[in-house]
Specification:
Helix 1 runs antiparallel to helix 2. The chain has 80 residues and is mainly α. The protein contains two helices and no strands. The chain has one domain.
């Protein structure tokens, strides 16, 4: 009985590892999209905080981050 259990666990772990390998590039693209939006909008927020112009640069940073993130996602989709 132990041999069948070991085979099942081994097959399950192999399939999980295969799934992670296949989903890696898509996860990387989504992290790039979110990272660009968050990082560039935070830069805009801190510029606004220093120059007391809130929400001007925050919105500009948010839009620019969205453009950069979508461009990186586009490059990922085209490459595939």
């Amino acid at each position: 009985m132990s041999k069948k259990n070991d085979d099942f666990i081994q097959r399950t772990l192999n399939e999980f590892q295969r799934f992670l390998r296949l989903s890696g590039p898509a996860a990387s693209a989504s992290y790039t999209l979110l990272g660009a939006i968050i990082f560039i909008s935070l830069i805009g927020y801190f510029i606004d905080k220093n120059f007391n112009t809130y929400p001007t640069f925050f919105i500009i940073g948010l839009l620019f981050g969205l453009i950069v993130g979508l461009y990186e996602l586009y490059k990922f989709i085209i490459k595939k």
